[in-house]
Amino acid sequence: MTWSSFSGDEVAALAQGESFLTAPGERDCPSCGRRGVRAYVNAAPNARRPTLVSYVWCTACRRFVGTRARHPAGLIFSDPLAVLSAGERRELERSLVGFLSHLDGLWESGALPQTFTAA
């Protein structure tokens, strides 16, 4: 099972419309057209500034993009991976295929998508 990156134009298309932070459900894929684009964000624990790390992927065509952005002040969100130790988290993230497969499992079980609120 191989994954490839979204093109620059596809990433730009993903950035159009509502943010995943305000509308966290699945959306249509700019690459394959199927409704299979999912997102997961977490706070980077060792960043010098408050940082969000985002993973956006299409479960249908196996395209993905990862980004870092400023963590908006007061943004609180659920994180089903917060129960993992730092070592467990590193081990899970070691393989992109395994990590995204794990996230897909969390979507299928209902633990994702995340919920977001402003403090």
Amount of beta strand = 25-35%
Main sheet record: 5 strands, mixed
Looking at the structure, what is the overall shape? globular
What class, by secondary structure content?
alpha+beta
Characterization of the model:
With 119 residues, the protein is of the alpha+beta class. The strands form two sheets. Strands 1-5-4-3-2 form a five-stranded mixed sheet, covered by helices on one side. The chain has one domain (4-118). It starts with a strand and ends with a strand. It is globular and about 35 Å long. The model has no long low-confidence stretch (mean pLDDT 94). The chain has helices at 8-14, 86-93, 96-109; strands at 4-5, 27-28, 35-43, 51-58, 63-70, 75-77, 116-118. The longest helix has 14 residues, at 96-109.
Give a short summary of the structure.
With 119 residues, the protein is α+β, with helices and mostly antiparallel strands. The protein contains 3 helices and 7 strands, in the order E-H-E-E-E-E-E-H-H-E.
Descriptive tags:
single chain, 119 residues, alpha+beta, five-stranded mixed sheet, 3 helices, 29% strand
Topology summary:
Elements: E1 4-5, H1 8-14, E2 27-28, E3 35-43, E4 51-58, E5 63-70, E6 75-77, H2 86-93, H3 96-109, E7 116-118
